Amino acid sequence: MGQAAQIPIEPGGRVAGILDAACRVIVREGAHGLRMASVADEAGVSKALVHYYFSTRQELLRNAFAWSEERWQAALTTQLATLATGAERLTSALCLSIDSDPSFSYQRALWNEVWSSLRFDDELRPRVVRSYSDWLARLVALVEEGHADGSISAAVSATDAGWRLAAVGDGLESLLYLGLVDRERAHELMLGSIRQELGGA
Predict the structure, then answer these.
(1) The whole model's pTM is what?
(2) How far apart are CA 143 and CA 90, in angstroms?
(3) Residue 5 maps to a domain
(4) Which of 101, 78, 28, 128 is closest to 20 using CA atoms?
């Protein structure tokens, strides 16, 4: 899932604070509930300051999505760096996507809200497509890493397994959102799907 925000952002600075606030508003009130005034209130700044950095609501939404993606990628990279094999890294990446840890579940909630805005924003769509394409490529690369270190059979197609497992993760996230499964059950189903994919040709 990554597209960098369009303006320089200093962590802990004013722009980062506004984008953090925008992400919280999106998750809490939905993408359609994103308003400059709501973000200003959430960030504890003036509405004029929000407009100074982001001229429109859509520009703010795009940059909030990019900022959230950047932090998600950094958190994921840090997590995976502690694991020894491609199979372990693949399993961790997929399970984190349905994890309750705020660093990861927050991003999924924001993703769900941003998806609802795609048909109204021609500039947002290619960013989301690019971000999801990066996620697919990362899963494929993790399977290939498993091929290289011997933790995943070379008979397993990296592209097919990566794409199918991405689809499983998306489906489980939807089930979680609807309350049809809890996180423990979703985790079990994800692990079972990974075993099936990696265990066969």
Answers:
(1) 0.82
(2) 7
(3) no
(4) 28
